[in-house]
Structure formats: structure tokens, C-alpha cells
Amino acid sequence: MKIGNIDLGNRPVMLAPMEDVTDVSFRQICREQGADMVYTEFVSADAVIRNIDSTLRKMVINPGERPAAIQIYGREVGPMVEAAKIAQEANPDVLDLNFGCPVKKVARKGAGAGLLQNVPLLLEITREVVKAVDVPVTAKTRLGWDCNNKIIVELAEQLQDCGIQALTIHGRTRTQMYNGEADWTLIGEVKNNPRMTIPIIGNGDITSAPKLAEYYDRYGVDGIMVGRASIGAPWIFREMKQYMVDGTLPTISRHEKMELLRRQIDESIDLIDEYRGILHIRRHLAATPLLKGIKNFRETRIAMLRANTKDELMAILDHIENDIFPTLEPES
After folding, report:
1. Which of 27, 113, 120, 225 could join 14 via S-S bond, C-beta 3.0 to 4.6 A?
2. Residue 311: CB partners within 8 Å, gap ≥ 6?
3. Hey, what CATH topology would domain 2-244 get?
4. Is 244 exposed, middle or buried (0-12, 13-18, 19+ CB in 10 A)?
5. For position 293, what pLDDT does the model report?
6. In the structure, what pLDDT confidence band is assigned to residue 191 with cuts at 50, 70 and 90?
7. How many other C-beta atoms lie within 10 A of the C-beta of residue 279?
8. Tens digit of pLDDT for each residue in 60-93?
């Protein structure tokens, strides 16, 4: 699969853009674990134009995480074009337009998935951004606003006509948020539309290596994007890449997984500061499957998620690894 001149190989696995998740540290780790391409947290066009430091930091891309995309969102043509030009100066490999964020503070203001209720404006933004920058422009969107307005098949053609070089489709409507099961049938219909020539990337509910392979076979998409299943589990990309090659899963020890979480803690603190870095990393610790199913773990989990210093948090992780893991079933 190619986006512009960027060759991602056959059946690539990509890290989805996720707010408060896909910071530079997590992106780097996911690339090392096998993700073929990574995306920044989404970036507000208005905040970019106002030179908000925290927003500008989101657009910093390290050499080791490439190929990497910057994703921007907004609700007006002018600010989106200006933000795209500024984002291009950060030298991303791809510039992605967010037409799929469902959260109320974004969609209800007419940005993200909110633009699915104003397709002419969505298309105008796309055309003008494509004209304004030299970097390949892609888009990420949903099936439509609600179950009565699943417009993705027609919209995909219109976006292609605007000049985007790849399209990612999340298999839910905006009103579904992240509830229910993602419907990939329309993603497959877009991919099988003979008029479509750009790569089609599927997204939604890809939670394991076997499911990734199954959906590639079933829907024939060019790429698959993995989001929530990677939170607290960047090693999922390593599992997926090996499974796609030989149908087996790599052996990744609990110790190795724990070391990746420790690294995230260190790098999150270095990137921001101790207090905010720990707040940021709690989402990964709360979601990690590494700690799921441990009996009588409630008090330790609460302590881990309430820790306010690096030393305190690391001591709890040491306790988990040295005192709790040895009591569990042997690793397969």
C-alpha cells in the first residue's frame, strides 16, 4: 500500500490517532513494536494558529517514528488551510484530516464528525487543504452521522475527487460513538467500488492478531488501523506483524511488557513533568491487558492509579512483577 510516495508494504498495520494517547513516546514504541505508520493526537486548527504551546508540541515528530502523520481538525476553511500550512512545516510524512471525532465538544461545534452534517463544507475544506500543501493529504471519517445517514460510499468518491491520497473509515456512525460493534460491510463496499482508486484503510474493533488477519481476508482493505486495543499494549503490533507472516504469535514475557510500561512512564514524565506525566500514563496503566484478571488485585490497582510520584508508581510495579506475577499461571 502506498500513500503518495510512502510505501507501507503489503497489509500494513497502523496506529490510530487518539487524543491523550498517541504522544511522541507511545508512537515511537509502537513503531519499534511493528506499527507501519503512526498518527499524532488530533490537533486543533484554531489552537495551531494561536500558537498554543501544548498544541504545537503535539506536532513534533522524531526521526525514529517515521512514517508519521499529523492529524488536524476544524470547522472552517480558512483556519484549516492555515493550520495545514503550519503543520507542513513540522515535516510530517502525511497530513490527515479528522472528519470522524465523535466527542460532543468537537462534533457539536461542527468539527470532526460534525462535518458529516455539512458535506459541502467538509469537501471544501478538503479541496482547499489539498491545494495548499505539498505533503500527501488523507482523511479519516465514519460511516455517517447516524443509522439513517450512512453516506460513506458516496462520500468516499467525493473525497477522492477532492484529491486525498488515502481514506480511513471507522465502521461506526457518529451517534454510535464507540458503542456496539463496528460495521465493516460498508467499508468493504467502499473498497470494492470500482471507481475508488485510492487506498482504503479500515478501523474499528480490531482487538487481536487473528481478527486483523480475518478482516483483511474478509473485506480486502488496503490497510488496517488499530486504536483502543493498543492502549497499554503497544506489543500488539508485534503480535499482529508476526501473525500476518506465519500465523503464530510471538512469545513476549510479562517482564518485557512491564519494561515497555516503565519506559512509557519515564518518557511521559520527561516529556511533560512528573505530576502531569503520571496523570497522562494512567490511561495506559488502567487499560493494559497485562494486569487483567489478577485475583484480589483491586487494592493494588487503586494504589497504582492514585500514585502521584514516579518512585511510588515504580515501587508498585516492582511489587506486581516480583510478588504477584510469580503466583500466576506460567506464561505460554
Report:
1. 225
2. none
3. TIM Barrel (3.20.20)
4. middle
5. 87
6. very high
7. 14
8. 999 999 999 999 999 999 999 999 999 999 999 9
The domains of the chain are located at: 2-244, 254-327
103-160: pLDDT as tens digits: 999 999 999 999 999 999 999 999 999 999 999 999 999 999 999 999 999 999 999 9
Contacts of 255 (CB under 8 A, 6+ apart): 321
What cell does 13 get? 498495520
pLDDT class for 332, splitting at 50, 70, 90? Answer: low
**Beta-carbon-side half-sphere exposure of residue 147 (alpha carbons within 13 Å):** 5
Q: Are 90 and 59 in contact (CB under 8 A)?
A: yes
Give the alpha-carbon dihedral of 148, 149, 150, 151, to 10 degrees. Answer: 150
- 188 φ, ψ (degrees, to nearest 5): -65, -35
Q: Which residues are catalytic?
A: 101
Give the whole-angstrom CA distance, residue 289 versus residue 230: 10
C-alpha cell at 284: 495506559
- One-letter amino acid at 109 equals K
